[in-house]
Specification:
Helix 2 packs antiparallel against helix 8, helix 13 packs antiparallel against helix 16 and helix 15 packs antiparallel against helix 16. The protein has 457 residues and is mostly helical. The protein starts with a helix and ends with a helix. It is globular. It contains 16 helices and no strands.
Length: 457
């Protein structure tokens, strides 16, 4: 069961980052303008983030195994269409369809862990899930760079097709259908969540291109805010909400959603800008840039395996602090610096921190959730994940937009990247404050309460 869940989640995450090293080849191969090229990534992010709450709640009603397989089929089909894309419009449309599949698979896979595993087994399963999150993101750069350089950018998407087919076939013999909830589907909540999230993410995506003060961005953000506020009011009245407000009664879970949003905002900036640093600043090829992330990937994997043996609250605080230290170090990059000392070593800290933090951060987001709300809680975890990436990238791109404009060559690149990563450092500082003041005390209180109610041996 865990193998199926991790394989599917890895496929989605791989596709999230494989696009970075392939964008220059996609631009030239399909003759895309800069605006059209941005929508190759943004169409996927917009649909993925907008549909997360809808897809995650649907699994509770129609059955998670069924929805999981549907999501895999959509993702695999879209990957095939992307690999065969003859023009830019086809590519962008297929990426949007791929976002539908990802919006189904990502939260459903976490909900399946909540359903199939309990106690210490669940902690270990989530540790592997978290390790997959970190490794999939960084390994995607390596895989994307290798396939783009050796074969074609199309191969980076076509590789998803056999993976999706294999996992669908595998799931038929292993996964058992989860109980379905009876009752009416919250159509108003589903529409409000999807359009509200979609409008917010659209506004964030457009901000680097048009500016935060543009009418398009402000209208989208205002519309999204109105829809999401209306969603909260509606969800407080309906009997079977798509977003149960009771999930926010836990300080631990609420803190976890906030910290995840901030943490992922910093991490997407790390991947996005460090890739530019390696290729434009150090002159690496796409494959070399992918290999350049190996120090982080390897350390991430090793550290993540240790997660189940350590205290969650200590683990989360230590991991966030290590990530912060690595990001702050890397943000000081200069033209005379070297890869080994000034990039690889900070990457080791970032990789260790991510390996330590992701597991307990995911655990905190679903702590104490009933099986009936597993899909909704998983959807919130993934919504914070996607919204954090969209918001973080929009803010960091806007922050660094005008830096380095008076410089040339590598100096311009390092100035630009350094400014963006400094912004990522600030996001991690705020995330660490949330961890230390909200999540850690709440988790320890929950743990002491469980100990008080635990029967004597």
């Amino acid at each position: 069961m865990l193998g199926i869940i991790l394989a599917s989640y890895f496929m989605v995450l791989l596709d999230n980052s494989v696009i970075f090293t392939g964008l220059p080849s996609i631009r030239s191969g399909l003759e895309l303008s800069p605006a059209a090229l941005s929508w190759v990534q943004d169409a996927y992010t917009l649909v993925f983030g907008g549909l997360l709450l809808l897809a995650s709640r649907a699994g509770d009603i129609v059955g998670r195994r069924r929805l999981f397989r549907i999501g895999l089929a959509i993702f695999g089909t879209a990957s095939l269409l992307i690999g065969l894309a003859p023009a830019g419009w086809w590519m962008i449309a297929a990426r949007a369809v791929q976002g539908i599949g990802a919006a189904i698979v990502a939260p459903t896979s976490l909900a399946l862990i909540t359903t199939y595993f309990d106690g210490e087994a669940r902690n270990k399963a989530i540790a592997w899930y978290a390790a997959t999150a970190g490794i999939g993101a960084s390994l995607g750069l390596l895989v994307g760079g290798a396939l783009t350089e050796w074969i074609s950018w199309r191969a980076a998407f076509l590789v998803n097709v056999p993976i999706a087919v294999a996992v669908i076939a595998w799931s038929r013999t292993v996964l058992v259908e989860t109980p379905r909830r009876t009752g009416r589907f919250d159509v108003i909540g589903a529409v409000g969540a999807t359009l509200g999230m979609g409008a917010v993410i659209f506004g964030i995506i457009e901000s680097p291109e048009t500016g935060w003060g543009s009418a398009r961005v402000q209208i989208a953000l205002a519309l999204g805010a109105v829809l999401l506020i209306g969603l909260v009011v509606h969800e407080g009245r309906v009997q079977q909400p798509i977003l149960p407000l009771r999930l926010f009664r836990s300080r631990e879970r609420s803190g976890a959603y906030t910290a995840r949003l901030l943490y992922l905002g910093a991490m997407i900036g790390f991947f996005y800008f460090t890739t530019q640093l390696l290729q434009d600043g150090f002159g690496f090829s796409p494959l070399q840039a992918g290999l350049g992330f190996l120090p982080m990937t390897l350390v991430n994997f090793v550290v993540a395996l240790m997660v189940p043996r350590l205290s969650n609250e200590t683990l989360l605080a230590t991991g966030t602090a290590l990530t912060l230290a690595g990001m702050a170090w890397l943000s000081r990059i200069d033209t005379l610096d070297t890869y080994l000392v000034d990039v690889a070593l900070p990457m080791i800290l970032v990789g260790a921190g991510q390996g330590l933090a992701f597991g307990p951060l995911t655990n905190a987001g679903i702590a104490g959730v009933d099986s009936a709300d597993a899909g909704a809680a998983s959807g919130l975890v993934n919504t914070a994940h996607q919204l954090g990436m969209a918001l973080g990238l929009g803010v960091l791109v806007a922050l660094s937009a005008n830096t380095g404009s008076n410089l040339d060559g590598p100096a311009a690149v390092t100035d630009h990247v350094g400014t963006a990563l400094t912004g990522g450092t600030v996001l991690l500082v705020v995330a660490l404050v949330v961890v230390l003041t909200v999540i850690v005390p709440a988790a320890r209180h929950r743990g002491s309460g469980s100990a008080l109610h635990r029967p004597a041996a």
